[in-house]
Amino acid sequence: MTKKVARSGRPALAWLWVALWTTVVLWAGGETASAANTSRFIGRFLHWLLPDASPQTLAHLHLLIRKGAHVGEYGLLALLTLGGLRASFRASLPRLAAGALAWVALVAACDEARQAFVHARTGTPWDVALDTAGGLLALALAIAYTRGMRAGPSLAAGG
């Protein structure tokens, strides 16, 4: 059973960061950060960086950057949520990570459902899966890092 314990003394600050980043993520899911709008600066930058690239190549790179942003923004949301949970509850790291992943999946599902009603966006379950995978990746790396730190320098040195 999870017991509520303020471990770091700053759970309110940790949850403020979660709330702020959740707001940023949901804002980015709106029309302002649609493909049409981001192509104005990402597309121009890619064209400047790769002037001989075909329009199809630039479009593929733009898509990769946008999907990479999904992974990054939801990965950060997962880590911030994990921090809020760690500051507020005493439980095993995998259990807290599961709670953080649940939050990531909920935010992703809500964002994609909303995008189904935004003119310049399309809500898709594939993006929910990608967003959740980004959160899972970040949490897996955090758990691996934490376990490596607990194991001490002999593990980090390879022996």
Strand content: under 5%
Cα shape: globular
- Percent in helix: over 70%
Q: How many helices?
A: 6
Strand count: 2
Main sheet properties: 2 strands, antiparallel
The residue ranges in which pLDDT falls below 50 over 5 or more consecutive positions are none
Q: Number of domains in the coordinates?
A: 1
Radius of gyration over C-alpha positions, nearest whole angstrom: 19 Å
Q: Which sequence of SSEs, written as H and E, runs from N to C?
A: EHHHEHHH
Question: In brief, what are we looking at here?
Answer:
This protein has 159 residues and is mostly helical. The protein has helices at residues 11-28, 35-49, 55-88, 93-115, 125-151, 153-156, and strands at residues 3-4, 89-90. It has one domain (9-149).
Keywords summarizing the entry:
single chain, 159 residues, mainly alpha, two-stranded antiparallel ribbon, 6 helices, 2 strands, 76% helix, 3% strand, globular
Give a structural overview.
The protein is mainly alpha-helical. The protein has one domain. The chain is built from six helices and two strands; from the N terminus they run E-H-H-H-E-H-H-H. The chain has helices at about 10-30, 35-50, 55-90, 95-115, 125-150, 155; strands at about 5, 90. A two-stranded antiparallel ribbon has the order 1-2. The longest helix is centred in the middle third of the chain and has 34 residues, at about 55-90. The chain is globular, with a radius of gyration of 19 Å.
